[in-house]
Design brief:
With 301 residues, the protein is an alpha/beta fold. Helix content is 42%, strand content 19%.
Length: 301
Amino acid sequence: MRVFLTGASGFIGSRILAELLAAGHQVTGLARSDSSAQALKAAGADVHRGTLEEPDTLATAAQHADAVIHTAFDHDFGRFAENCEQDRRVIRAMGQALKGSNRPLIITSGTGIGDDSPDALAQEEQFNSDSLNPRVASEVEGNALLAAGVNMRVVRLPQVHDTIRQGLITYYIQHAVEKGVVAYIDEGNNVWSAAHVSDVAKLYRLVLERGENGKRYHAVAEEGVPMRQIAERLANKLNLPQISLSPAEAQAHFGWLAIFVGKNLRASSAWTRQHLSWHPTGPSLLEDLQDMDYAPLLSFR
């Protein structure tokens, strides 16, 4: 298939690009800069220039694709709600371009949208359109496209990691270095689901090739890694003390990260594994944190 891939030069998208090309697909990648365009050409992809701020520039590429995989997202968490609304507009534009065909649109969301209560195990079949998580906007728009006849599928992400990046934990590490302490809330018993980026890339390919219209898939290799274990590993590697904070102290210490650090972001992928024969094999989150090179971060202390 000829696949239009947004975020093709990014952390996850670049791995999806390699996975798709290795499987014999043709890929057109979205680029917003000359450097991104050069990287995509070097990787073996065609290039489409456009930006998330101008959704129509993406719709034109979607019109000429056999399928669309959408992973691009503005990760400025100081504008998280606004960026989620921007994602809604991008999904709408590309979905409208695919309307009237059976060409799949695969969008990206977070496993937290599969929670039906604050401490629940997130599952693929769960979807609460009234969720307070702003990222629900992506799936609300996806559902509207589904009702309009678009072949829409969702991949929900946990903390996606390798030895360079680890989702929200990347910001958690940077914050610990800045503060000179690795903090967690209460006993640190809340957990975060995780998956290695190579396993996530493989899942996107499987959703493209074998996925079903209207289904949601969880890219979860580890159902829940305790925050206390994450903090202990980082404190050891960064040579920093650990402290426990009360929920009341968290906002002042963590800033925008406070809304995530104490949460249970636990998620299952049992249904996904069964239906797509997806078997994660990559390193665990704690293994990648053990093998990470922290020297560049520590040089600024």
